[in-house]
Batch of 3 targets.
Target 1
Amino acid sequence: MTINLNNSNVATRENRIGSITGYIGSLSDLAGKSECGTLKGCSRCFSQSSTCLSSCALGQLSAIRDVAIIHHGPAGCSVASAGNYYLNKTMAKKRGVTNDTVYVGTDMNENDTIFGSTDSLREIIIEVNRRYSPKAIFVTSSCATGIIGEDIDSVVDELKDEISVPIVAVHCEGFKSRIWATGFDIADHAVLSSVVQPPREGVSSNKINFKNFYESARPEIMEMFAKFDLEPVFLYCNSTVEELSHMSESLATTCICGTLGNYLGNALEEKYGVPYVRSINQCGITGFETWLREIGKVTGRSEKIESYIEEQRKIYMPQIEEVKKELKGLRAVIGMGPGYTFEVSRVLNELGIEVVWALAWHYDKKYENGDVPPSMKYLLDNGIDFEASVADQQNFEVMNILHKYQPDLYLSRHPGSTVWAIKNGTPAVYVADEYMIFGYKHTLEFAYSILNSIKNRSFEQNLAKRVKLPYTDWWYKQDVGTFLEEAN
Amino acid sequence: MTYKIAVASSDGVNIDLSFGAAGHFDIYSVDKTEYRLTEKRTAPTKEESKAENICGDEKRECNSSCSNNKSCGADGKSFPKVEMLSDCRCIICKKIGFNITKQLEKKAITSFDVDCTVEEALKKVTDYFNKIDNHISLRKSAE
Amino acid sequence: MAKLLDKQRYKCALGAMQTVQAITRAIPILHSGPGCAQKLSDGTGSSGYFSPNIFPCTSINEKDVVFGGVKKLHSTIENALKVIDADLYVVLTGCIPEIVGDDSEEVVSQFDKAEQLESFENEGGDPDKFVYKPVIYASTAGFKGNNYKGHEQIIDAIIGQYLKKSDKRQKGLVNIWADVPYQDLFWLGNIREIEKLLSEIGLTPNSIFGYNRGLDNIDKIAQAEFNLIVSPWVCLKNMKKMEKKLGIPYLHYPTLPIGAYETSKFLREIGKFAGIEQEKTEKVIKEHEDYYYYLIERYADLFLENRVINKEFSVVADAQYALGITKFLANDLGLIPAKQFITDDTPKEFRENIKDEFKKLNYNLQADVEFETDSYKIHNEIKAHDYHGYPLILGSYYEKELSEKLKGNYLNISWPVQDKVVFDDFYAGYTGGIRLIEDIYTVAVQRFN
């Protein structure tokens, strides 16, 4: 097993699981090869901007309440602090709590890159601690600090004696990995190595660690789980350090997205014996029921869960069958992280929509324990196949595909991506919220979102008629794989 | 801290072999920024690989007979060439298949695919690792 | 020395990519990590013909660090020219290549006119026809400064690598340099409004940022009679460079004109500098002032009988807005400046002059101004000051919670902005002043006392 909590530098996702970026083929190809580990990926000779891994890592950590993030680097790296401030205040207000988390930068300048700035960093950490008394401190590096050899680990180690709260170094030297979702693992690693405590003696719990993004479905999940005598503890948005320290005592860990949660889930299982619920995502009917049943199995609540499923099916299935009639025959292209692309493909299939191309931004060949991702396995087992590419958020490939396939619909989860489909005249649905397809109710809502997007095409047709897309005609005539350098 | 670098070169002067094509690897032992050739390792042949029931051909198209076998990747075994080099910190070749790169990375082995002389590559890589290990800036020094 | 950026107000120099994005059909090509573009873009208003997902980027990895990334940069530029349909390509270098020593400038020089590398004519024309597309370069590593500096770097690059001195001068043509695109919330509307005002007094404005302003406008720069810089300090060094290289003089007007008092002063000064007939300028001014004061008079009851807006205010913003708004609130609305805070890390050589500007208020009022990037200190000062009533605070989203605690009246006018959506609204000029009044009093009427 590859999880080593004593090392501050988590092996990047590419290292650990054998992820790839840059692949074109069919889904069964991708999956089949994944089982044998023979996947050929390619690197690119032209690429566009995608995402910084620190956005994922620090987006997670900075959502924890009353902590401090000290992002050591030039001002650009800590720009995320502005958005984080807004999110924290709004999300705390929504839950009815307060959040005094601070996210500061160190405005590294040219002198710092020549002479180093570990002394200043030390002083900054002490000052932040004095000002805000955070419950934990995460000190992050950046590309610039990595390149100049700043020894963040030593600074943090020395301060461990002076600072009474957990303080941990978080390594975000971006040039070391191209697959952005690594950030989630970095965040998990930081929390596991500094905050999570071994389980207390004699504590029994009905808690489930529930890893998600922005807990929009929290009230309904709490209500549902209460029926099964389970209490979900949502992470990391609005989590407290206290709460997280007791994650090792929970009955199980589950997450809203495989990519997001597999490091944490596996580590808690390996180190503390907290079972990790491995299942396809809760998207769509099959997803939701499979997931619930797996939880039932792991926590011993199967009976209660079965009666809940039966009850809910009576209410929702007829409505879903109704809307399916209007969705039949639609063709879609999907572009999302792998945790979602293959899940959403399954749901679209359930709703009778054909997926003509799926772009998974990167692809985890295997999850931590060596199995093929469950979502992939499900598709293969059920004979669902379509063209797939692993596009690493490369916009020019997405546009090329949309131009060739002219689907009825484009679905994506990442900011900046759906707008391009719309300009192409393709209706787009921004599957932003992780609960958008959660359970019966939201699957029905999702079906209607799609239907409504198709029904009223005014916005995109108006825009598409007038705007010019930024690519040359030459590019549209090329093969999508033009810029992939052949792998051996 | 000393470590090893494996180089795929036919003549010891140029990096001119891909990982797949390399019949042997020159192993250099490195101490800070000093390196010297200490051994030549021969890659296992196809026959040897077959005997171990492990697929030794990196370029093949995977077909159903292989997936029935399920004896590579899925159960953690990597190609014999990769196994052979598992005590190295870094591999340098002209070209390395993505698949191999992933297997190497699982073992925390860095790989570079470059087109230059052995000396240039070793100089750059050992300099880089030396700086990373000792927290020295990678800033280009004025010459 | 690294400093504590507590609640930061600016981005790094690579934020200059937004300056490039503001020039129609210009695209930045980043020699940086894969995530810089998305990180430095705002969530709202960053789309358009080009958006950050479109920016070509070398996505530097470990191999590029060890063996150099110039080959990759070359191939990225070469392919960007083939794939992306733009008029101007601006290569920007990030932190890593500048430290490890990639000679990006040399790579870019290979795409000079002399090489005539392939570009593809795109309007249904002959695919074998070659068209020259300019490729320029700016050194914008994050640690070189913040995005105000980065903005100046872009203009510098255009002046140094693209513009040529011209003997031709177009009468009345004036280049306008004001707000920093995307950093200043009202940049699009403000620049348009300043253009409009200049047109009214008979000048021909030229600007390179925003709707329909791109390479054609850049090509006109060298023929202008003068440069007009409306800013306390940003772009001043670009003006000096243009004076030297292109022989174009400049008029430095440090205050963004908001409201009647300052805008009339603004028009008079420009009119004088440009040799416009005084009568003509005065006619334009009178027409605007008549309408402006009609509105003020009509709403006098709002000003005088509102129970919630007290006299003292603080602005927390960059030098541009801190100065512009302070002068407006004091000289137009008769309010009293408490302490003002400038958060753009103004270079030291400009600070004295800017402080002096804050002392030039009516009735010998002098506003106390502090240059500070640490918001903790700013907030402590605001908390410590007695505003003798509800404080009026115009600042960034970070000031919202503070204002609520102090029961103040708060308006989000500087970055980061979360509380409003602005497309092309503006605060510049006569109309802009009215807009600002509307916004302030909309806040005020949310409560009675």
Target 2
Amino acid sequence: MWRKSVRAPYYKHLIRNMIFTILGVSFIPVFLVSWTIYYAFANAYHEKINAHLVTLVENHKRQIDAFLNARLADILFLSENFTFAQLNDSEFLQAKLLSLKNNYAGVFVDLGVVDADGNQVAYAGPFKLSRVRYADAPWYQIVMKNQVVISDVFLGLRGFPHFIVAVKRFDGDRPWILRATIDFIAFNNLVENIRIGKTGFAAIVNKKGELQTKPRFQFNPAEGCFGRFIDCDQPITREIYSEERPGEGGDMTIYVSALLKNKEWLLVYQQKVSDALADQRFAQRLSLIIFAVGGAGILAMALLLSLRMVNRIATADQEKEMMNKQVIESGKLASLGELATGVAHEINNPVAIMVEEAGWIEDILTEKEFGGNPHMDELHRALKQINTQGKRCKEITTKLLSFARGSGSTIGMVQLNEIIEEVMVLSAQRAKYANIELHSALSNLPEIKASETEMHQVLLNLVNNAIYAMEKSGGAIEFKTFQRDEKVVVEVADTGPGIPEAILGRIFDPFFTTKPVGQGTGLGLSICYGIIRKMDGDIQVKSTVGKGTTFTIMIPVRSGLV
Amino acid sequence: MTIANIMLVDDEVPFVEAMTRRLTKRDLEIHAAYSGEEALQKLSKTNTIEVVILDIKMPGMDGIEALKQIKTRFPLVEVIMLTGHATVETGIEGMKQGAFDYLMKPCDINDLVAKVEQAARKKRGHEEKIIQARLKEITSRRT
């Protein structure tokens, strides 16, 4: 409804302000709190994931180192506890291999004894390598120098990836070597087991940048520092090192590396950040959804509340505006009253003079010399007419005054039927223009003590309201009078649009009006109510929307008026 | 012989003149005054006036004030309020201040004459009673 008001832009502005205020008050703290919590959570989670990965890699490093050392220890044990001669016996060696295989299923592939010249003198294993010469093999050279070796992974003569664990012993002055081949698959499993999420995997590289295990996914050791982890610009010297940088596909990737096997190997674990932080991302998405839903709720509430509030304000403003107009209207009425009093006085005096002068003429005409005048009758009639019209003027001014003041009405014996007839005559013209028929069914009524002016006012008001309601549609107004018990009853029924039930209870309230602002004061029916109640009477209304309205006035035959 | 000796007080000169003519024709002796002050002045000079017909709204001293003065200074003189100010309140105010009756302009000449007669009769009745009382007093003193 406020949309129609001239102040619509003001209310739109008000709504906008209210919405922004509500949203600001609601969202700013939520934003700050959410952001702080999210920031702290993301940091903590990131750190936790990093720490977890570091621990994981550390554990595996230990596990792999332990595995390699254990294999070395196994060979050392064999070499220390048995002589070259014993081990040189292929059957004996076979028995030891069997025992090792029994103890560590699938780890040891074969055992071999190599003499000082690099020739394998004894061999136990699935391949036919009994007289192979290893003098040129890198591992042989290392073991001859360092006493022990754990070689890098290589294909060798057999064509399968494997690595060698070997120890150098002396038989007298002559060195000999006990070597064992470690199954690549068994070793690879140690690294292969490190699988986290969808993209997390591990691999081992040697100093040359050669892969020592078979990574789950594509892994390019040449990338970053891993290929030559000792020789590169920023050599990896820390036992455990972690960093985050864009990986091969350009996605941010976490790299955790650990030096193995006396810094000869590097265990590298890598996982995409998005994968590592998947849980955080999920929590983040969930929070965003909750935030969006909550935000939508707040927005809807802000809209609804603002609209409601502004509607109320608009209604209140409208009522205030109406009240102001009514106050002005009342002020106008009051000044009209003062004006009417003055006018009444000013009119009555000249009228009195006219009447008296006419009376004087009449007095003169009674003189003898005018006795035979043929126009005497006509003169008397004319003078009488002046007198009558003078009295009429007086009546008019009296009524004007009583209307303007609402008092000053004289109380006398009133025949309501006569007043109804007068009201019908007064309203006939207006009713005719509005295509409204006026009917009456008046039964004999006793006279009641009342103010004629006030009764006029009440009935005229009801008829005027009925005509106003039917002005467009036309219809009929019926006046009915009868006596019931000790009361005189007047019914004024119209066939208009009726009064909605919602406002039926308010129609007698002062300042209640359905007419456009400026057209009605909302005082008519409340004055009627006041007048009838003053006479100990009652005024009731029955209305059916679409069928019509009936006002019933009941006045005690002996009213309380004095 | 006049019916009564009256004074017409109104600032409307034509009204006073017309009324004077009409009332004179009806055997009333009329004195005219055009303000409250003039009325009081004339009353103090002439003691024959029995009834005053007094307009309420007048410039200077208004009818109600003039009525109060008349009733104080000439208590026996009866006053009929005649006003164009068509409200009951002023009439009632006049009655409270001791006016004999009130009429509204324009009024029927015969009604007015009737009221004047009644007022004059009342005045004479009062005078009669006073004379009687005085006579009684004198006679009682003699005896």
Target 3
Amino acid sequence: MGPRRGRALRRRLSATIIAGAFLLPNFLGFVIFTFGPVVFSLAASFTNWNLMKTVPLQWVGLDNFLKLMQSPDFHRYFVNTAYLMLGLPVAIAGSLLLAVILSQPLRGVVVYRTLFYLPSFTSGVALFILWKALYNPEFGPINQVLETLFDWAGLTSVKAPTWLTSTQNPLALAVEYAGFSPDQFGLGARDAIIIMGIWTAVGGGNLLLYLAGISNIPQDLYEAAEMDGAGACSKFRHVTWPQLAPTTFFIVVMSFIGGLQGGFEQARVMTLGGPAGTTTTLSYYIYVKAFEEFQIGYASAIAWILFIIIFAVTLLNWRFGSRYVNY
Amino acid sequence: MSITDTRKGQWWFRRGRFYTSHALLFLFALTTLFPFTWMVLASFKPLSEIRQTNPLPSEWHPENYTDVLNSKDISFKKYYFNSVFVAAWVTLLTCFTSSLAAYAFARMCWPGRDAVFKLYLATMMVPGVVTMIPNYTLMVQLHLLDSYLGLIVPASFSAFGTFLLRQFMLTISPSLDEAATMDGASHWRIYWDIILPLARPGLIVLSIFTFMGNYGSFFWPLVLIKSEHLRTLPIGMLYFDSIYGRQTNLIMAASVMNIVPLIVLFVVMQRHLVRGIQLGAVKG
């Protein structure tokens, strides 16, 4: 080895050491609090680990997963999680509509945009507590407004929904102790959470993404469409919508991933998963199993099932996302 | 059809679209504002008027707010302090660790860099609940349950932050580093004196996200904190709601006080935020 190559090697080695020093603080934290825990929780999901130490720690193989597959609770909470995600397409469509309106040269656009972003920015425990009061069947303003409307319209037999204490649902999913009663529109706790979720999400990050997407559409596409005599609707169908496909794809994937993990705060703050377990989502179920019953192994197994679904969606995103991005 | 006819038609069409747009925006603004308005008005009412349908309080009761702040059952001021204290530390540490790592990813060449970066990206999609459980047991082992350290340290290493700042740093021209290296500047000097100041917009965005996220953080403090004096605002709010649940006016006053700092932050930082959200969605 000549002296020159030796020096170059030494320089590369010292550059690597310096890079390592820059990376180290973050990398250590990453390994200890993210990467390590991922591996650890996979291992835990194959054990009967219980923090209350009622049973000796044992490797139980796929037992947790098999038990989950046969558990009616798990199925119900899975359905609940999926049910709450029914609001996502509505929220996304709402964001798109608002974005189209807000990208016109109108007065007050910035004020509106700021205002619409407020719910998602302040979202959290305080807003959930607020909505709990809004939905209150005795004094909540939502039912006050509804009842005033019913009185005014002369509908005496119609009752307003009891929202967070009701197990009703418009899909008439079978829930114990619950039927479908049309005089309350069949609306129950899950629908209340969906409506609140739409209110929060419509003006949030998705609206901003759509606004950015629309501002990136080349103006000459619209001019060409106008030449061909396209009206507003057909311009939307043939220019805006296809040009926004990558944005929509990204938003749908992200909302789906978020929705699968959602519902924990709402359940903990507003309903404690009730009534009759109708607002218990998978993430709330994991919380109950891990931090109230201390069944770490079982809870890790549920978390991993969630992770596997999310991983599959992400793979689809990588596989097909690029197809939409290259227009 | 003559030309004037079409023009007239278009004019009507434009007017129609103009009015429909404004009507829709106005309607949506009302829907957005209604819950907030009710919250603020309810927070100034006496308890007896919560049940009544009059929208405005007959008498304004600002003392609801001081009642909450000086309540003997809860220490709201302490919750405020804890939330801001924890969020500020996490923000500071996150910005520091993320920007160092981002510098290594964006401005330095070393073997295995892209592989490590892919590992970072891959873990960004791991649901929080997966890592939450092992982290909790780790805190039990380290005796960090029920402590500020337990709230701050695990939250201070962000893969997302590293990703976001790397994107920002990649946009800075490499000729700057080369010139500085020629002048004999060390990597630390380049990082501290050149790259960090230029990555300021990215740091601002990351700071806002991190601060907000930790100010409102719920799951982690909920499982970690047991003592009253360590409760953060969301946990304190939950506790307050459980013991004062029937006193809606006080609960609403507490909620208003909870979200006012967020609204102020938002209004002040709006410009940066909008850009940040749009940048965060750009895939690397």
